[in-house]
């Protein structure tokens, strides 16, 4: 059995390697309180004040020791049973998002009170690493996705905070149909969010997760990309509040209109599947340096 190490040591190492960004640049600093209020979930009973203020880092502390790490993309309802069946007591959940998400339903959701109570019983703490993992120059969501797809990064784009989110490189498959088959196979997705422009796929822009901002697509086009691969290039969720629903509806309209004007094929392979790559391939090697075993909690339906 691997000996447990202090949680403070793991947190300190992560803060050093993935430093937090100012709260105005971290969407979850405002989104987590909003979702909690809309759903009437008392997250303040479980979430640390420091996380509430900045939207990232150590989110829930349920002990002082870490025996292993469970990586995940979202805080799904299934995570608790996944940990229980593996007797993962005193493990640490390392998540990209501090919320659950229905990418084709209500959007971001807060876990239930019972979910947090179950993690207390298991002495499982939670760390969320969102923007810092998106902009890291080596271990990042988009770089891991590019490596998974066989794209050699030659350039970067979409500057955010003090880093770059997207990467650009030559396509591993020269035609759109073949590339789509390649993406479905490598990421284990049954279907793609596809807007086709021509049949060639020579130069790719790669962004893991949501790339539902017009300027991001335009930047990739300006870099000479004929194909753009992301989790989603327009939001599919409906939203759980009037503001969410209005924002998502307008973004869909705007991005679909823009897509018709760009000389670029757009491919969405699900928010979950594109961001899972870093959790499956890169983070286990990172935590192994700390002497911690790692397991990944999968999501059965990538487009849930």
Report on the architecture of this protein.
The chain starts with a strand and ends in an 8-residue tail after the last strand. The strands form four sheets. The protein has a six-stranded mixed sheet with strand order 9-10-12-13-14-11, sandwiched between helices. Helix content is 39%, strand content 22%. The model has no long low-confidence stretch (mean pLDDT 96). With 304 residues, it is of the alpha/beta class. The chain contains eleven helices and 15 strands. It has helices spanning 7-17, 28-39, 49-54, 78-85, 113-122, 131-135, 141-149, 176-187, 214-222, 242-259, 271-288, and strands at residues 5-6, 57-60, 65-66, 68-72, 91-95, 100-102, 107-109, 125-128, 155-160, 163-170, 193-195, 203-210, 227-232, 265-268, 294-296.
Helix percent band: 25-40%
Q: Quick one: CATH superfamily of the largest domain?
A: NIF3 (NGG1p interacting factor 3)-like
Helical run tally: 11
**Broad shape:** globular
Write the layout of secondary structure elements.
Layout lengths: L4 E2 H11 L10 H12 L9 H6 L2 E4 L4 E2 L1 E5 L5 H8 L5 E5 L4 E3 L4 E3 L3 H10 L2 E4 L2 H5 L5 H9 L5 E6 L2 E8 L5 H12 L5 E3 L7 E8 L3 H9 L4 E6 L9 H18 L5 E4 L2 H18 L5 E3 L8
Helix pairs in contact: 7-11
């Amino acid at each position: 059995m691997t000996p447990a190490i202090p949680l403070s040591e793991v947190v300190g190492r992560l803060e050093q390697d993935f430093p937090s960004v100012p709260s105005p640049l971290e969407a979850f600093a405002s989104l987590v309180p909003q979702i909690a209020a809309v759903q009437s979930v008392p997250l303040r009973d479980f979430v640390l004040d420091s996380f509430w203020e900045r939207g990232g880092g150590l989110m829930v502390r349920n002990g002082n020791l870490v025996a292993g790490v469970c990586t995940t993309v979202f805080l799904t309802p299934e995570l608790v049973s996944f940990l229980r069946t593996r007797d993962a007591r005193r493990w640490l959940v390392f998540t990209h998002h501090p919320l659950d998400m229905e990418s084709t339903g209500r959007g971001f959701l807060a876990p239930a009170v019972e979910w947090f109570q179950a993690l207390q019983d298991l002495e499982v703490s939670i760390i969320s690493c969102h923007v810092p993992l998106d902009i890291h120059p080596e271990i990042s969501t988009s770089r891991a996705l590019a490596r998974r797809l066989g794209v050699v990064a030659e350039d970067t784009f979409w500057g955010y905070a003090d880093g770059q989110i997207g990467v650009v490189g030559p396509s591993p498959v020269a035609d759109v149909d073949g590339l789509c088959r390649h993406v479905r196979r490598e990421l284990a997705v049954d279907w793609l969010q596809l807007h086709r422009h021509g049949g060639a796929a020579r130069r790719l822009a790669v962004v893991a997760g949501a790339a539902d901002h017009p300027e991001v697509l335009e930047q990739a086009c300006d870099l000479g990309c004929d194909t753009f691969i992301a989790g989603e290039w327009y939001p599919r969720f409906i939203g759980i509040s009037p503001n969410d629903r209005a924002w998502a509806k307008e973004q869909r309209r705007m991005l679909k209109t823009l897509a018709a004007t760009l000389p670029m094929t757009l491919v969405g392979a699900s928010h979950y599947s594109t961001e899972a790559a870093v959790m499956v391939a890169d983070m286990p090697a990172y935590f192994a340096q700390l002497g911690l075993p790692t397991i990944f909690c999968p999501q059965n339906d990538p487009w849930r």
